[in-house]
Amino acid sequence: MEYKKNHNTMPEKLISKPQQPNENNGILVQGHIKIFDPNTKEVLVDKRNAIHYENFSESLGQSMANKDLGYIYSMSFGNGGSSVDPSGVITYLPPNITGQNADLYNLTYSKVVDDTSTVNTDTSRNKLTVLHTTGKVYTDILVSCLLDYGEPGGQQAFDNSTSLNSEYVFDELGLKSWQGSASDLNLITHVIFHPVQKSLNRQIQIDYTVRIQTLTNLSTT
User: Which residues, 6+ apart, have CB-to-CB distance to 197 below 8 Å?
Assistant: First the structure.
């Protein structure tokens, strides 16, 4: 608001200025992964993940523009995220979060979690759930995935492998978004963790939470 003054410097009229929009806003994306045995409740992995911001931003734009692209489609598992030296020390590689063609280091298994897909044969346990509380500035996408007793095919009978390089001793995981076909997917998150073996004698449940939060009053400097 400002006063318009006459030649006697007395205010003669109150003039309203249009309120400027707050353009210093942004979006923060965070992810958290919990891997556990749904029967014993043993937690195997509980940690944050890394976001591939370029691919995520494109997927978000595609989804908002209703292009039938960009939505979370599958969860991918691999065994190339770590290495073990002769003394048993584990070295973890950094997550792959740059370049549109980024992928897991060594993908060995993938499962569809899009519960609207006809390829998903168990939509009650492999699904996407949107969680939002009125008044909050964030929304969570809970990605649920169950590796049942019989999957993946070819796994060992018991979780006692002495090799951390076995095909289904997982140490990396990522979510991928749909880009037009099951062979055209973009990596949007990637997490590296200590090796976890999937074997015939147990189920493994993955609860992967992706939080999308709007931010206000960000500094532009």
Answer: 156, 159, 160, 161, 166, 168, 169, 170
Confidence check: pLDDT of 150 > 80? yes
Q: How far is it, in rounded angstroms, from Cα 41 to Cα 205? A: 10
Question: Does residue 214 have a pLDDT over 60?
Answer: yes
Residue in 132, 56, 63, 65 with CA at minimum distance from that of residue 98: 56
Instruction: Note the pLDDT of residue 88.
Output: 80
Contact 171, 98 (CB under 8 A): no
Contact 31, 189 (CB under 8 A): yes
Closest to 172 (Cα-Cα) out of 199, 192, 196:
192
Q: Which residues of 23-47 are buried (b: 16+ CB within 10 A; e: fewer)?
A: eeeeeebebebebbeeeeeeebbee
3-class DSSP assignment, residue 54: helix
Q: Give residue 220's Cα distance to chain centre.
A: 27
Contact yes or no for 95/105 (Cβ under 8 A): no
Q: Residue 163: its pLDDT value, please?
A: 72
Q: How far apart are CA 46 and CA 44, in angstroms?
A: 7
CA distance linking residue 172 with residue 141, whole number of Å: 20
Domains of the chain: which residue ranges? 24-215
Give the predicted TM-score (pTM) of the model. Answer: 0.85
